[in-house]
Amino acid sequence: MSRERLRLVPTTGALWAFLFVLLLGCEAETGSAVQPGPCKAAFLVGQTPITAREIHYRKKVEEAYGNCGMSDETALISLVNDALERETARMHNVVVTEQEINAFRKYVDENTKAPEILEKVKRVFGDDRASYEQIYLGPKIINRKLDSWYSRNTEIHKHERAAIEKVYSLAQSGKSLAEAAQAQGLDYSTTEYHKGHSSIPASLKGYRPRHSESPTDGIAAIVGRLSEGEIYRNIVEDDYGYQVMRLLQKNGTEHKLEAVTAKKRPFRKWFLEQAGQIDVRILDGELGKEVTAKYPSIWWVRECCQN
C-alpha cells in the first residue's frame, strides 16, 4: 500500500507567477533610484536586521504599485512578517538559493503583466541588487518553498499518516470505512460525482494530477479504475490531508464515493508556533511605541513590544 499525491504545489511556471496590480493612485517617485535611509537597525528578527533603509524601500515599492502614504509602522509590520517567515524557513534548512533567485528574476522580467510597474520597482532599488532580491523577490520564493516543505514533511504529519494507514488496514480487513473512521476519530463522508461536470464536490477538488489543467481529471482517474465496492489502491494525499476512498455505486457517468479524511495540521498554526520561538528585538524605541499603538493586536507586537 502506498501513498499517492495527485495534487502538488503548482508547477514551475505557476510557482513563479504572481499578479501585478495596475497603478491606481499617486505618481510614484521612481523616475530614478531613490535615496535609501540609513542602515541602522530598527528591529532585529532572529538573524535578520530591519533598518530604515528596508523600511524606506518597502514604502517606495508600495508607491510603485499605486499605494501612497504607507507609514513607517505599516512598512515595518510587513518586513517583520517576511523576516519571521525567512527565519522560520532557516530553522528548517529551507533557504533560497542563488539559482532560484536568478531563475525567478528572469521569469519576472520575461513574464510580468505590468512591465511599467516592474520598471518603477527596479528604479526604487537602483544598483542595490541585494535589497531588491531580499525585499522584493526573496519573500515570494520563501513563502512557496516553506509551504511546500511543510506539506510534504512526513515527520510533522506522522500521526495523521498513521491514522489514515490504520483506516486503510481496517478497511482491507473487512471493516466498513465508516467504522474505520470512527475507530480512528477521523472524518467520514460520502459524495456524488458526475463525470463530465465542470464542478466537483469541494472535498475532492484538490485531487488532480500534476500538470493537469482540469480539476476533474484526478477524480476521473480514480473512479475510472474502480469497481463498485472497491477501495482505491493508494492513500491519496494532497497539501491538506490524506484520504482513503471507496466507490459505492456506479451508474453510467454517475458515481457515489465514500471517503475517510485525515486532515493535516494547518500550516498557519504550525508556523505561529515556530515563529514564536524567534527573538524579535526592538532597537528603535520610538518606532516600537508607534507600532504598539497602531497594531496592538498582532501577536508578535503583543509579545515583544508590550512586555
Structural class: alpha+beta
What is the level 1 CATH name of the largest domain? Answer: Mainly Alpha
The count of β-strands is 8
CATH level-3 fold name of the largest domain: Triger factor/SurA peptide-binding fold
Q: Shape from CA axes?
A: elongated
Number of helices: 12
Q: Please report which band the strand proportion falls in: under 5%, 5-15%, 15-25%, 25-35%, 35-45% or over 45%.
A: 15-25%
Residue stretches low in confidence (pLDDT < 50, at least 5 long) are 4-34, 203-216
Query: What is the averaged pLDDT score?
Result: 83
The count of domains is 2
Largest sheet, in brief, is: 5 strands, mixed
Distance between the termini: 52 Å
In the CATH classification, which architecture of the largest domain applies?
Orthogonal Bundle
What does this 3D model show about the protein?
The protein has 307 residues and is an alpha+beta fold. It is built from twelve helices and eight strands. The protein folds into two domains: 11-154 and 270-305, Triger factor/SurA peptide-binding fold; 158-263, no CATH class. The protein has a five-stranded mixed sheet. Strands 3-2-8 form a three-stranded antiparallel sheet. Helix 2 (52-64) packs antiparallel against helix 5 (115-125), helix 3 (72-91) packs across helix 6 and helix 4 crosses helix 6 (129-152). The protein is elongated.
